[in-house]
Automatic annotation (TrEMBL):
GO molecular function, one term: DNA binding
Coiled-coil regions, chain positions: none
Protein's name in the database: IS701 family transposase ISDha16
Biological process, per Gene Ontology: DNA transposition
Species annotation: Geobacillus subterraneus
Limits of the Transposase IS4-like domain: 143-325
Domain of life: Bacteria
Length: 333
């Protein structure tokens, strides 16, 4: 099999990023083979696979030495890639006259729990609660940022969550968010699920000129007429005639729009929504926050639905890039 044309394409992209100014030819050569292997069907995440699937001319131990001892700066590689991504995504947003989205979420790269007699456990692994499995699993927990429009998405930045380091996932998200520098011609909306919209993270987004659209837990405190009440309790007072029907894609919702203060934010829009074919009970309630009060109900729900872009990426990374198994999962520490 002739991989020359494939390697040339990868090498050309690295030159577009300007990597020749920062990395030696041998380092760039290793990176070309690495990307080739990662994107080849059949790759399962080992150094042996990198050599086999990319037809690397050197022994596997050469690759091991490259990852552990070679003087190359992965942060510089990420920086140059991020600069390229931001140029691309801003061009797309202007071209489509659409907002730019930043999705924040975390995922677990599950590993096999080592034996108690194992001399060396995998670095950075710990027990993390998996919402998918409804139990704690052993592995790496990664906090990700993705930038995207309605039509195109780019994984942008990630950090390994290390419980022992004493920094929360919120702290890591705020740190990664700060790498989104620049002035944006299009509005930027930061999307997140109900585990992330803390006061600190919302304030960090607003400080950078970004709006937030996020799911809220149903026990989030609202202040209708100045009275503190949980969203799920407030919802009990809402009658069907107080709602309006909103269609997003193939789904139809009953929506009640609340405007005012919530805990941690003085002025916001909160949509209390139920699928049209489900009863208006707390068990079926969806609570969606928007810091942009100019958006209509349909726009808020349509923008919030874009959060699934990052979930699709997690699935693809695990199925195709083997992020659960790969030796590269500890990058970004």
């Amino acid at each position: 099999m002739n991989r020359l044309a494939h390697h040339q394409g990868i090498h050309k992209f690295f030159m577009t990023l300007g990597l020749a100014l920062y990395f030696s030819k041998p380092v760039i050569k290793h990176l070309v083979y690495l990307v080739d292997a990662l994107t080849t069907k059949g790759f399962s995440g080992t150094l042996t696979d990198v050599r086999y699937w990319s037809f690397h001319p050197n022994h596997r131990t050469t690759l091991s030495h490259f990852f552990t001892k070679s003087p190359w700066n992965e942060e510089k590689l990420l920086e140059k890639l991020q600069e390229w991504i931001l140029r691309q995504i801003e061009r797309l947003a202007k071209q489509e006259n659409q907002p730019l989205f930043v999705s924040i979420d975390d995922t677990i790269c599950q590993k096999t729990k080592p034996s108690s007699r194992a001399a060396h456990a995998i670095q950075g692994c710990d027990w993390h609660y998996s919402h998918k499995d409804h139990q704690s699993v052993w592995g790496h927990s990664l906090v990700w940022l993705m930038v995207h429009t309605f039509t195109q998405a780019f994984p942008f930045a990630f950090r390994l969550y290390d419980k022992a380091a004493g920094r929360s996932k919120i702290d890591l998200a705020i740190e990664r968010l700060s790498s989104l520098k620049g002035k944006w011609a299009q509005p930027v909306y930061v999307l997140m699920d109900s585990w992330y919209p803390s006061q600190a993270l919302i304030e960090a987004c607003l400080k950078q000129g970004f709006h937030v659209i996020a799911m809220l837990k149903t026990n989030r405190i609202l202040y209708p007429k100045g009275i503190a009440i949980q969203a799920k309790e407030f919802a009990r007072y809402i009658e069907p005639q107080d709602t309006r029907f909103v269609t997003v894609g193939k789904e139809r919702y009953r929506v009640y729009r609340y405007e005012g203060a919530i805990r941690g934010l003085d002025d916001a829009v909160v949509l209390l929504a139920w699928k049209a074919d489900e009863p208006m009970t707390p068990d079926h309630l969806h609570v969606v926050l928007s810091t942009d009060r100019e958006l209509g109900d349909e726009e808020i729900l349509r923008y919030d639905a874009q959060r699934w872009t990052i979930e699709c990426f997690f699935r693809q990374a695990k199925d195709q890039l083997k992020s659960d198994d790969t030796v590269f999962a500890t990058f970004g520490r």
